[in-house]
Amino acid sequence: MEHDQPDMLELKSEIINTFRPIEQLFKIMDKSSSPELPGDIARSYAEVGLELCQNFRRKLDHILPTQGKESDDAR
Predict the structure, then answer these.
(1) Where are the domains of the chain?
(2) What is the pTM of this model?
């Protein structure tokens, strides 16, 4: 069973690294949108995207838990 753990950790890391550019896009959209403009569509998309990113990371942590390591939600 311990032999499978490094493989699962590597798999989780690869999935997160593949997903990271999408998450960064939403973060950039969120920071670059202007709060003075009412109805700023980019900010709305960014908020939805960031929430989806958080849900994805929670689901990934549930499917591929890592023992003794912090959750990847903080990234």
Answers:
(1) 4-66
(2) 0.62
